[in-house]
Amino acid sequence: MTISERVFERIQQMGMTQKAFSEKTGILQSTISEWKKKKTNPSSDKIMLICEALDVEPEWLLSGIDAAGSRSQTQDYYMIKKDTEIGRLISCYNRLDAACRNRVIGYMEAFASLRERTEDNG
Prior knowledge:
434 Repressor (Amino-terminal Domain), mainly alpha, 2 domains
């Protein structure tokens, strides 16, 4: 099954119209119709918009494998939206030089360790 086939299958499962999907994602209806008519897949810049609108994980959309299912392994990566707290943290971290990054990681590990000790002591 292709990416676009999974998109249309999920739209149908959710009882959503292509118009509603278009409004929710900001993707033009003509573009969505083209995926169906020409059996093409969405461009990579649309993947996260689609996943959010259809409440699915990118792994499922791209491969058909459910990350929560028994066939998958624990992932070695995170997918984080830039406008979240963690996304902002990563953006700031990426602007630091290597020495500052190491200091930040040291501080975070120290805080996490302190919290764990506090929780263990009651």
